[in-house]
Amino acid sequence: MWTSRLLSNVNKAALQASSTMTRPGMTSILARHSSSSTSAISYKRSHPHKRHPALSSEYLYPAAPSAEEAVSNILYNTPPSGQGRTKQRHIFNCLVQNEPGVLSRVSGILAGRGFNIDSLVVAKTEVADLSRMTIVLKGESTTIEQARRQLEDLVPVWAVLDYTGFKVIQRELLLIKVSILGPEHVRAQMKSRSPSWHMVEEAEEEMSPSNALRQTYGHLKSLTELAKLFQGKVVDVSSDCAVIELSAKPDRIDSFIKLVKPFGILEAARSGMMAMPRSPIYDRHESEEEEEAQDSGSGVDATMLPPG
Fold first, then answer.
1. pLDDT > 80? residue 122
2. Contact 50/56 with Cβ under 8 angstroms?
3. How far is C-alpha 308 from the geometric centre of its chain's CA atoms?
4. Of 38, 91, 182, 200, which has the most beta carbons under 10 Å away?
5. Which pLDDT value is given to residue 182?
C-alpha cells in the first residue's frame, strides 16, 4: 500500500513539474537562455556576408591626367578676374610737418574719397619739426594710389609711403579692464560709479565668503595665465577687476579680446597700429661671389671653339 502511494505521489510531482515547464512565460525564458549560445550562429546563417567586388586596377593605380585635363582643372578652380575681389588693406606712412591742422587736412582728403580709416596714429619723431603718421585703410589699389598722390600734394606733407606688400613689423597697444567677479556681475559693475565693495558683498551673500574669495582669485589667476600666453601682463588689480596691458599684432589683439570676453569686459582702449619696415639681411659671402662672377664676365675659352 505504501509503495503504491509513493509511486502515485512521484507521478503527481512529475506532472506538476511538466505543467510548470510548459507555461508560456517559462517557455520564453528557457528559449531565451537556450538560444544565447547559438544566436550568433543562427544570425550569421540567416544574414550571410555580402562580398564586395574586388578593387579594379584603375582605382589602385589611377592613370596620370593628361595635360588637357590638368589645365581644365586649374582653370575651373581659378576664380575669374574681377569677381570676388576683396578690398586690400593698405598701410600708409606719412611724414608730415609738425604744425596744427595737418591731421584734419589728411583725414579730410581720405573722407572726401569715401575711405573709412581703420586706424590712425600720429606722434612726434626724433626730429623736432617732423611727425610720423600711420594710417590703415581698405580699398582698391587704383583708388588708394590716387589718394596717396593727393596726400603728397599737400604742402605740409613731406612724403607718403605705402607699405602694402612689404614685410613690416606691426604693433598695437591694448589696455583692457576685465571683471574678476564673474560675468553675471558685469552689468551692475558698469552701472555703478562708486567703489564696488557692495558688489563683493552681494557676491558673498549669494555664496559663502570662502567660495566667493576662491572664485574671485580663480578668475584673476586665469586672466594672468592667459595674459602670459600672449606676452602681456596685469598692470592693475582692484577688488572687482583687473587691467591687462598687451602689445602685439592687431590680429592677436582681436583674438585676446575674444578670449577674455566671457570674463566680462568693463573697458578697452586700443592705440592703433604702428608699422615699420623690416631691414633686409645681406650676406658678405654672397656679395663677394657676385662680384667675382661680374669680374670674370662671360669670357669663353678659345680652345673650346670650333675650328675656323
1. yes
2. no
3. 70
4. 91
5. 78
